Amino acid sequence: MTKLLGSKIKIIVIAAAALVVIITGLSLVYLNGLGAADESDDTTVSVSIPSGSGASAIVDILDSEGLVKNGTCAKIHARIGGYDSLQANTYIFNRTMTLPEMMEAINTGDFNYVSKERFTVIEGATVNMAAESMAEDLPFTAEELLAKWNDTGYVGSLIDKYWFLTDEVLAEGIICPLEGYLYPETYFVTEENPTIEAVTEMMLDKTDEELSKIRDDIEDMDMTVHEFLTLSSVVENESLFEEDRPKIAGVFINRLEQNMPLQSDITVLYPLGERRVQVTYDDLEVDSPYNTYLHQGLPVGPVCAVPARTMEDVIDYEESDYLYFFATEDGKVIYSRTAEEHEKTVEENRWY
Hints:
This protein is mainly alpha-helical. It is built from 15 helices and 6 strands.
């Protein structure tokens, strides 16, 4: 009898221990499932929560945006989390946030995560293009934005604040000091009444973030940041396809090293404020320090906004002995080593 009782007690203890292990394991799985979807990706994600959305429906929305690590765990949390005042709005989250953090922000309507305005600067945009686009979404006119960006006193204060801005942006002949420095990205403004200064510094902060990653690489190229961004901007607007950027960067670097003029059509059209395929002989004579047909070396400054991918392609440019390139009507780029080869290519493939 004592033995039997002892056996039963032993079974109960083992069962209880097993239950504790199972409960502990499930708890760990549950808590882990509520964690960040991707702790290394802090890219902002805009999430719109419609009026009347319940906790379960909100989890589905967050999941569709890639913000949920484990859908089952998230659904359980939605049921037991006690979220009883969920507020419709557009929120700005990122994949490093946990599910409870996002649900709490929605439940309280946390102003820190509420999107008030958004605007986009597209890759390859000039400051004029950026100003026009931003004026559609922000309480400023394009003229007000450009006036601020051309205010040398204001630019001087930015030079004091940001390591990558130098007096090079105020050189004679520069059309806009901040050209090439306003990083192309979609931005979310959460201030009730944003200022031009705040919005501008938001873009420059992003530029700071991207340039800081490659600061040593730029120094290894024996270029200033201004020179690097200038070259990168030319590559950005001369390259139609991703695979061509390192090759085209290599062509321009070869020309610089051989003291040949860059002869980039982009640099001719930029001071004219135009974007088109055909460049006339009159265009080539435009008297501007941006014109790389008339002036040796790089143009006086960047000609557009440059994304990180183009900066990386300039750093990792493809070495070759090409000195010329020509884009056909379908976008294919033909590279040449000599002027004679290039002239023949143009003659056989001219389409404009």
